[in-house]
Design brief:
The chain is an alpha/beta fold. It is built from 13 helices and 11 strands. The strands form 2 sheets. The protein has a 7-stranded mixed β-sheet. A 4-stranded antiparallel β-sheet has the order 6-7-9-8, with helices on one face. Helix 4 crosses helix 5 and helix 5 packs parallel to helix 13.
Length: 399
Amino acid sequence: MIYPKGLLAVPFVLHSQPSAAYDERRRSVLAKMETGAHRRYAEIMHDVEELINDHIEHQTCGTQGRSKLKHLVPSVGVFFTPLLLEEAFEFQDDRRKISSRRFVPPSFNDIRLTLNSAQLMSLTRNGPIELVTFDGDVTLYDDGESLTNENPVIPRILKLLRQGTHIGIVTAAGYTDAIKYYGRLHGLLDAVAQAIKDKEVADPKVIILGGESNYLFEFDFHAESFLKYVPRKTWMLDEMRSWQEEDIQSLLDLAEGALRECIGSMQLSAQILRKDRAVGIIPVPIPGKPKFNREQLEEIVLVTQQILDLSTPGKKVPFCAFNGGNDVFVDIGDKSYGVLSCQRYLGGIEGSKTLHVGDQFLSAGANDFKARLACTTAWIASPAETVALLDELHFHREN
C-alpha cells in the first residue's frame, strides 16, 4: 500500500497549484494542473502494474525472487491475478477527484480503494468468481453487533448466490453451537432460507468458518438455526492434521500466561477467556473505567506474539494473535487456513477465483492479513464500504 502512495506524492508536489485561488488565470491553471496530475498518476499506476505483471511471470516460472518488484519491495507476496491499476485509477479518479485536489495529496484510502477496484476488475474479467469470503465485525456489521434483517449487505450477498457464487464467513468468533452463529448472522441466514422458499436460489452454498480456522458450519434449510456442524475431520487440511493436541494446549497455556502478565503490568480491568482452540482477554466493565485503548491492545498483541514466536509450541503450531477492537485473542491457525479450508470443502476452488473481504490488513495484530496467502483480497474500513464494494463488483460484472 505504501509503495504507490509514496510514488504519487512526487507528481502531486510538482503539479498541484495551491496558489491558483489568487491567480487571475485560475480556471486555466487548474485545468492544466488536473490534466498534468492525472497523466502522471496514471503513468505511475501503469508502471507499477507492469512491475506486478513481471513479478507474476517470474512467479509462474518459480523465479519470483529475481523479479524487479521483489528487489524493490522484498516483503511482496503472492499475486493470484494481475492488477489493472491504471484502469482502476481512472475509475476511482472519476469518483474521488484525486487529480483535481490542490491541497490534499493522494491518500492511503485513495490507494486502498484503487487497489480494491483493480482486484475486482481483474476477477470479473477472468471470472467466474466462485467464492467470496467475509470477515464479520466491521466488515458485515459494526463491531460487536450482529447481521440483522435490514442490513443492506444482505441483498448484495443474495445476488451473488443467485449468480452461483459461494459465500463464506471466516470469522474470529469461535463457537461450537450453531445457535450462537445464528444470533450473529440471523439476518443473512433468514434471508437465504426465504430465498429458497421463494425459489430464487436452489442450492446455495453458505458456510461459516469460525475461530479463524477451527469450526465449520454449513447452511442447511432443514436444520435448527439453518446451520449444521461439519466435523473437523471432513474438512481439515493435511497440514492441520499434523498439529498435536498437546502442542496446541501448550501454546494456549503460554499465551494465557503472556496475557495475564500484560493485564498485571498495564493494570487492566480485564479477565481471561479460555476456549478449546483460543484464549483471550476481554474487558471487565467497571463504571468510570475507560475501555482498552488502541496502544494497549497493540502492545498486548506484540508482547504475546513475541513470546509465542520464540516458544517450542509456537514453532510447531500456527497461531494468530490479533487485536479485536476491544479485546485480544490468540487463535490456533489463522485465516489463511480458514479460507483454504473453505476452498477445499467447496470442491477445490482456486485462490484466483476467490475474494476475501475484511477490515484488518495491517500487519500488527490484524487477522485478515494472512488471508492474502490463500486468495485475492479487498480491504474495507466499514460495513458501508463492504456494501459499496459489492455494488462495484456487480457493476464490473455487468459492464
